[in-house]
Amino acid sequence: MDRQKIILLEEKAKEIRKDIITMLREAGSGHPGGSLSAADIFSVLYFHEMKIDSQNPHWPERDRFVLSKGHAAPVLYATLAEKGFFPKEDLLTLRKIGSKLQGHPDMRKVPGVEISTGSLGQGLSVANGMALAAKLDGASYRVYALLGDGECQEGQIWEAAMFAAHYKLDNVAAFLDHNGLQIDGRTTDVMSPEPLDEKWRAFGWDVQVIDGHSIPDILSALEHAGRVKGKPSMIIANTIKGKGVSFMEDVAGWHGMAPKAEEAERALAEIDQRRSE
Amino acid sequence: MTAKIATREAYGKTLVKLGEKNDQIVVLDADLSKSTKTADFAKVFPKRFINVGIAEQNLMGTAAGLATTGKIPFVSTFAMFATGRAFEQIRNTIAYPKLNVKIAATHAGLTVGEDGASHQTVEDISLMRSIPNMTVIVPSDAVETEAAVIAAAEMTGPVYIRLGRLGVPAVNQDDYHFQWGKAVVLREGTDVLLIGTGIMVDACLQAAESLHSEGISAGVINIHTIKPIDRETIVKMVKTTGAVVTAEEHSVIGGLGSAVAEVLGEEYPAPMKRVGVQDTFGESGNPLDLLNKYGLNAQSIVLAAQEVIKRK
Questions:
Q1: Cβ neighbours of B66 in A, within 8 Å
Q2: Which residues of A touch B63 (CB under 8 A)?
Q3: How large is the average pLDDT for residues B14-43?
Q4: Contact status of B157 with chain A (Cβ, < 8 Å)
Q5: pLDDT digits 0-9 by tens, B183-215
Q6: What does the pLDDT look like over A200-236, one tens digit per residue?
């Protein structure tokens, strides 16, 4: 595995995390926990895996990404800005009236956002529709999605899971941000969706379970997913909600609360100090 | 007597014609293709027909995804499930991002018949017109259905087309020119205006004849496009007549009657009565018996007209 590549992707993840904290501090509201837990996945997708062009957001042959867990908008916005879809200064307008950076992603406002999401459970259906279009047209683009584990409590996720397997959408690769937390506490206490790996396998998906914060793991998983034929791929990423900020890690309360100035300062310092493994 | 054709039948045939002209048309259904008549399209274009099974929320989301790539999805199931079960999916994933999805839902209203209340939506027009960016069309006969479906394919943005199970008589001639958003003046009158939509347009015409024999001059308009509604024509004709009756195969709450009341309440209040389902659920029965039992017929319109004239 390319050492340089891994270091680059870890640096990108770091930048994304810092931008998440900064934009949320400025906005005064939003979702840090579930944004930070996904930063490594976003880094690999947008700076290695996906065939996209920030200067050409509507390029028909582009790979698509669907943020089914739409509240993690900050990690999507930070990544898109870092990739060059729009200026980084815009991140400071998150959730402000008139801003294109709405609290949950709006495809009509932000270049790079493929579908408006926010209401959980719906994104995988949309991803399937996009993937099906590719099959109908003989196009080679792939569709990626990020789901939440709490989100798997929504019935529509399983409708979509069934559909993707039935229609053999092997151009769909979904990540599951398996951080074990939701708003009211641990997912296993509120409404356990476990065992997730067995469920997705039973629904006909190729399933991998990885460390969602290991760039090499994420890279390997995507490489494997790209070779799966006749089935969609599910990569269950074991993650820590709030990853990168010690006082946020694995704390349900940081699902939807923005850091105040002093907390943000501490968070940024911690993220900066974290060395590549 | 002219043949009665169900609007869902006309839909099925029109879809095939559309499919022949435009290869971007795709059709989705949720295990009801034999009833919704999307099976007609499926037979000719099997690759472009997608059955999602009994999963209406997934139905709408999948259509949305297809629409983002430039395909033009026509999505069908029973109106109860399309607008009820999948209301939020339509609202958040289709209407909010203004995706080019055409929801053609069948078996609306009481005339779904023997299946009974669980299947008889009397709220669908209300639900769909309350969503921003949604165009709502209720065709009155086969000819209007064909025109509306073609128009829906040609316009950009989300559209809800309300179709029925029951065979209905022709209201429009074969040379009918459909313009979405424009009310159709079927009969001029001076004493009262009868506004109908869907299957109740024919009932309005019958009622007008009946009133004529009593010496009452009733105007009749067909409002096929509930949203955006033709405010201008409504106000103009109510100014002429001074009294209005609305008639729909839908609850009197939230549908055509409410939409008309909104316009008149703001621009030209006039004595008004809404003929429709009086805030109740339906029940099992033969469609024609049901229409009579629930007051969805020419007789009810006549009585309503006589009442509003007295209030002038």
A1: 129-130, 132-133
A2: 129
A3: 98
A4: no
A5: 999 999 999 999 999 999 999 999 999 999 999
A6: 999 999 999 999 999 999 999 999 999 999 999 999 9
Q: Sign of the CA dihedral A206, A210, A212, A217?
A: negative
What's the full length of chain A, in residues? 277
DSSP A254-272: GSS-PPPHHHHHHHHHHHH
Q: Quote the DSSP letter at residue A99.
A: -
- Give the integer Cα–Cα distance in Å for B20 and B196: 33
For residues A19 and A17, what is the distance between their CA atoms, to the nearest angstrom?
5
User: Packing angle between helix A123-137 and helix A155-166, nearest 10 degrees?
Assistant: 20
Q: What is the dihedral of CA B207, B212, B215, B220, to 10 degrees?
A: 70
- Using the Cβ of A209 and the Cβ atoms of chain B, whether some distance falls under 8 Å is answered with no
> What are the tokens at B172?
């429009």
Model pLDDT, residue A277: 47
On whether the CB atoms of residues A143 and A171 are closer than 8 A, the answer is yes
Give the per-residue pLDDT at B218: 98
How far is the alpha carbon of B121 from chain A, nearest alpha carbon, in Å? 22
Torsion angle, alpha carbons of B22, B25, B31, B37, to 10: -40
Residues of B in contact with A131 (CB under 8 A): 65
Q: Does the distance separating the beta carbons of B61 and A160 come in below 8 Å?
A: yes
DSSP class of residue A71 equals G
State how far the Cα of B109 lies from the Cα of B78, in Å rounded to an integer: 10
Nearest to A163 among B58, B60, B68 (CB): B58
Long-range CB pairs of A213-217, under 8 A, 24+ apart, other chains included: A213/A40, A213/A239, A213/A240, A213/A243, A214/A40, A215/A6, A215/A9, A215/A10, A215/A13, A215/A40, A215/A43, A215/A44, A216/A1, A216/A6
Distance in Å from the first CA to the final CA of chain B = 37
| CB contact at 8 A, A143 and A63 | yes
Q: Where are the beta strands (DSSP E) in A223-265?
A: 233-238
Phi, psi of A235 (to 5 degrees): -110, 105
Q: What is the pLDDT of residues A97-126, one digit of tens each?
A: 999 999 999 999 999 999 999 999 999 999
